[in-house]
Write a structure and sequence with these properties.
The complex is a heterodimer. By secondary structure, chain A is mainly β. Chain A contains no helices and 11 strands. In chain A, the strands form 2 sheets. In chain A, strands 2, 4, 5, 6, 9, 10 and 11 form a 7-stranded mixed sheet that branches. A 4-stranded antiparallel sheet of chain A has the order 1-3-8-7, with no helix packed on it. By secondary structure, chain B is mostly beta strands. The chains are: A mainly beta, B mainly beta.
Chain lengths: 115, 112
Amino acid sequence: NAGVMQNPRHLVRRRGQEARLRCSPMKGHSHVYWYRQLPEEGLKFMVYLQKENIIDESGMPKERFSAEFPKEGPSILRIQQVVRGDSAAYFCASSPGGVRNQPQHFGDGTRLSIL
Amino acid sequence: GESVGLHLPTLSVQEGDNSIINCAYSNSASDYFIWYKQESGKGPQFIIDIRSNMDKRQGQRVTVLLNKTVKHLSLQIAATQPGDSAVYFCAENTGTASKLTFGTGTRLQVTL
């Protein structure tokens, strides 16, 4: 399966800890997007990255959240000092290029639970 | 702010019947729309897309209709099967950005 791979699938953290979510895009895709989903809701855009560049982070909270997509390795969404409100499913999507009007393909998400 | 929304939160359909899932959008500048299917515990799965220079697009058992005059999008599923049971989201490409704006979803329940 050459789809978008996310890990871990489930992550449990206590308040104040750090959460790291990883995403490997589809083969040949150089654009990565992170979305967040609360139960019974649609996905909300967080950040759009290309290799080594953040293109659009308009959906990212100003504090505690950061994202990167290094030259080598997966994209990482990092949440510092987690709080209960961070509990959600976090989805990563990828697309082949910077051309608009191409479908984004999603992974199966990381479900983050904060105790 | 502008958003994409759905009229019906839950739709129950008998197996074999056709399903129609509706979506209203408010951003007249949107020019690309996608329908996704999301099963429990999984990520959104691409179904079909349509650009604003088209009114209709067909796939295997699915058809998307776009009415730009009233800013309405619909997904038609022919001969609905139990495996079609899921939550369906419409999403739009917002402005010049590449991010997608999702609606809140419609749950499709297929009864035997």
